Amino acid sequence: MLVWDNVRLHLTAGMREFIDANLEWLAVFQLPTYAPDLNPTEGVWSLVRRVTRNAGCPCPTRPGG
Questions:
Q1: pLDDT tens-digit profile of 11-64?
Q2: Residue 51 dihedral angles phi and psi, to the nearest 5°
Q3: Using an 8 Å Cβ cutoff, are 29 and 1 in contact?
Q4: How far apart are CA 15 and CA 38, in angstroms?
Q5: What distance in Å separates the CA atoms of residue 60 and residue 38, rounded to the nearest whole number?
Q6: In sequence order, what DSSP letters do the residues of 15-35 get, joined into one string?
């Protein structure tokens, strides 16, 4: 079973090839890009980003950071 979160970084040709080559045994469940209710780790990453911003750390997801 593969739970795929559809983040742009994960939508690579290699990932699609892997899925296509293994469909006979691999079940793929695609989540929306951001789904904290379906993927609890989204909440964790949200907190990590908030803490690093508040600490003044450069953040690659923030413009100018």
A1: 788 888 988 999 999 998 887 777 777 777 777 777 777 777 766 656 566 555
A2: -65, -45
A3: yes
A4: 21
A5: 25
A6: HHHHHHHTTTT--EEEPPSS-
Give residue-wise pLDDT tens across range 29-44: 887 777 777 777 777 7
Q: Is this model's pTM higher than 0.70 or not? A: no
Distance CA 41, CA 23 (A): 26
Q: Say how far apart CA 4 and CA 56 lie, in whole Å.
A: 32
Tokens representing 54?
């508040």
Contact indicator for 44, 51 with CB cutoff of 8 Å: no
Task: Give bridge partners of residue 29 from the DSSP assignment.
Answer: 3
